[in-house]
Amino acid sequence: MAHSVSVKIPKLNKTIEVPTGLFINNEFVPSVDSQERIETVNPATEEVICSIVAASEKDIDIAVAAARQAFKTTWGKNVTGWERARLLNKLADLIERDAQELAELEALNNGKPVKMARDFDIGDSVQCLRYYAGWADKITGQSIEVDNKSKLAFTRHDPIGVCGQIIPWNYPINMWAWKVAPALAVGCTIVMKPSELTPLTALKLSELAKEAGFPPGVINTVPSLGPVGGAALASHHDVDKVAFTGSTVTGRKIMEAAAKSNLKKVSLELGGKSPHLVFESADLEQAASWAALGICYNSGQDCTAGSRVYVQDTVYDKFTSILVDRVKALVVGDGLEEATGAGPVVSKGQYDRVWGYIDSGKAEGAHVLVGGEKRQSKGYYVDPTVFTNITSDMKIVKEEIFGPVLSVGVFKTEEEAIALANDTTYGLGAGLHSNDANQCMRVSSALEAGTVWVNQYNILNNNVPFGGKKQSGIGRELGSYALEEYTSVKAIHWNFGDKLDWPLY
């Protein structure tokens, strides 16, 4: 049975060879007990790209065993930080070499524009790998004074072990790098479950990991349905940590499974309903551009999408006029076409979900300022839709949509703006625009979110931590903080002078 397929891209007049098996111990293999396949679909054409092997629970067991063996023998504490750094940098070099082909495959399977995938997602992923390569030989503990005459203590930051990593479909390559880089830097091994909607680039990246020279079992990739593969990893007794990016509903299930199995460490980056505040002193032209980016980038399929914009009443009319012009200027089309600035949403299920919310907004009395009309052509396209005349109890205001749908409200005072922003069960991101420095400090401090942007939006850096509050998750990715998610601290007490008298009295 062949474990690869040639995928033709007529629009580009080229063919990409794509692996279709499970990647375990540096080989692409079939399932040990299942004939089930996952069909991947091009959201721009609604056509099947190819089908790949769907991992079963037994396949997960085999992948975890491979990761455990590698952790005990060829990885973990058995290689130096310098060697881990060398391999991470080599992997970054290979991804950079193949950036164009990876971007084309990402556009084909996910729908996003090639240039966005190549220059932003992949460019950032290369930086992420190199950033954590720099950390690999700098994992240090502390020397702690206890009694200089007879005792000392010190700490070690040990790799936590085998990590189950479950990544979403909105940034398939970027989320792969966010999870893989810190885990490998500290010496963990990985069983990666990509989304069943977008598994193709994770499989191509697995090829590059082997080419880079990572030992067998260090990185294993097991495409699978969430209730099968994801559930198996979350409840597995030989997985030491599970990292998940996705919905809050699924995050709860993972946390429960982790608690009921072996109390494995859990980090969760979950949903959001992020607010974006525009004060009267703001540069409205810039604020409108950032607000448009906040909801239109990646077709709104972003955990931090700025889906609730609140504008001070004195500048509301002027701001919304500029915002409409910004939104209308965006070209939404096939990601394989050069002029495209945003592609279709990822799947038929997501398309139906987003249109359900647009219909709900109309039914509940919100006013459509722009968008809100379906195309009569193939592809899961949703043109950016902006609602005004909103109320806080509307579904479009309260619930995460994960599409290019924006609710715009109004406020009079700073206190009201903060109250509106924090009126959500989520706490992932928030933004504010103001040229009053004191106001920027007050409001950024008051906003209940893991990340707050001031006079910009949705820009992340690999050396700055990212994560949520409230129901947006626990733990942090990026920066030095992510290393803590993949290490366990061991305290060692060393007695070199005290003698124990016995018996005790």
Automatic annotation (TrEMBL):
One of its GO terms (molecular function) is aldehyde dehydrogenase [NAD(P)+] activity. SUPFAM superfamilies: ALDH-like. Residues 34-492 form the Aldehyde dehydrogenase domain. Keywords: Oxidoreductase. The active site is at 269. The keyword Oxidoreductase applies. It holds the Pfam family Aldedh. InterPro entries: Ald_DH/histidinol_DH, Ald_DH_C, Ald_DH_CS_GLU, Ald_DH_N, Aldehyde_DH_dom. The keyword rRNA processing does not apply. Belongs to the aldehyde dehydrogenase family. PANTHER family: ALDEHYDE DEHYDROGENASE-RELATED (PTHR11699). This is NAD-aldehyde dehydrogenase. It comes from Ephemerocybe angulata.
